[in-house]
Amino acid sequence: MPRAAATAVPSTAASDSSAPTLSPGIRAAASVLLALHLAAVVSAPFAGPNPSGNPSPLALAAFQFFRPYLEAAYLNHAYLFFVPEPGYGHLVRYELEMPDGTRREGQFPDRAEHRPRLLYHRHFMLSEKIGGPPDDRIAAWTQSYAEHLLARHGAQRVTLYLRVHRMPDDELVRRGRSLDHPESYLPDRLLQRWPKESP
Question: Which of 6, 24, 74, 181 fits as disulfide partner to 177, beta carbons 3.0 to 4.6 Å?
Fold first, then answer.
């Protein structure tokens, strides 16, 4: 039986030599962009609280510099849950005044209403924007939440409150309190009434 002819294997040296290469300028620019991206990603967690207290002025300055990029690329989320000293959780409680004079209450996020978990997480990010670090856009965000609730429920007035959920301390744990026990919440703080009452 005749043996099959051996097939020639192309030389890798020839194929490698014909591959396109990037110029040193393009490679340098790509390296700078990659370094800036990594610096931006690292700046977010370093701007959070740490065991020694508040973040350093340098960390805050770096975070403020990269903040527009982080928000545009949605890279600034949930870091405070993983740093050594996680912060408090924030919810938005609302009271609706209906046209017939009745009142309704609710909050977001709400595990019973906002399902699946991804929808709950998205509402939680909305409430964290209100309770997060000081920002000159908080008033605008709060008003947009109020207007959305009015339109969604057909209410004539809405009052928003910030509800702060603190981490359980040793005393609460020793007493066997659950994570959502009423004692783990701080008193609600008024955010906004909308539409605003006439003076």
Answer: 181
